Amino acid sequence: MASTEQKTKSLVLSIHTPSTGPFGLPLITGTAEAPAVIRGTVNFASSYDCKGDDITIHFTAQAQVKWSKKRGNTTYNYHGRHMFQERSFQVQLTHPKVGTVAAGNYTSSFEIPIHPDTPCSSKGTYGWMTYKIKAILVRSFPSLNMVHEQKIWVMTSLLPKPQRPLIDSPLTMSRFNGTFLNRVPYICVIPSEVLYLGQQVPVTFKCSGVSNTHLQIVSANIKLKQYTTLTVKTDRKIDSRDILNLRVDDGWPHATNGQAKVDHASQQPECWNQGAQSGDAHHHDCTKTHDRPFPIL
């Protein structure tokens, strides 16, 4: 009697990190004291003996730039590539004969240290810095190779690891002024001009200037913008792009009249909300401590 079991096989590459970076990529971080290391596993599973050799793991950290400039009637094209790191290694499988992989489940772990001088990941209009790992199971013709590719977002900092994960007291205050919808002036304050990789940063907003209107902060977007200097031969270009947008919709304290005091857990700073009497301009100081690491380049 013929078997009705379906033949299946899979090749999966997994990166071990609890964090997700820009563009939904796995996030790997590092400092000068603790350089970044990409850790992961590759798994191959097959329900039957299939064609194939050993698995090849290929890692690259490569930068690429491309732009053009027009001077008079002449267009100059600037294009460059640089491989900062490259590494390949084999994952051995069981072969009952040459070119055949025995049925089974194979898992292998790997570690790839990142040199501290290698640039952070970037993705701009004119340049890219890409970290990529590819797992390849080579199979003889006419079978197609099995390939699983994974890009990783690597973010490193030359600053040491912060002594405290949360800034719970002002150091060197930074203040930014703006106007919401061209009507409501606001001030945004962060407690320090120097923010460390992985640190949690309380953000304070103060809105004022609107009479007989109750103001309440209900949401905020925290954007991470990356600036990159690109160089090809004697030409240089500055590239920038928003690479991360964190939306914070909950946890904003507020008050309608009088004072309301909100105690944040985990030794986070307290927030006092001051509301004016009816008929006066309302002032609300609202503090929200973002409970996810705010990555700083």
TrEMBL record:
Where along the chain is composition biased (Basic and acidic residues)?
280-297
Segments forming domain Arrestin-like N-terminal: 37-154
Q: Name one Pfam family in it.
A: Arrestin_N
**Region labeled Disordered — which residues?**
273-297
Gene3D superfamilies recorded:
2.60.40.640
Instruction: From the Swiss-Prot or TrEMBL record, give the protein name.
Output: Arrestin-like N-terminal domain-containing protein
Q: Which organism is it from?
A: Entomortierella parvispora
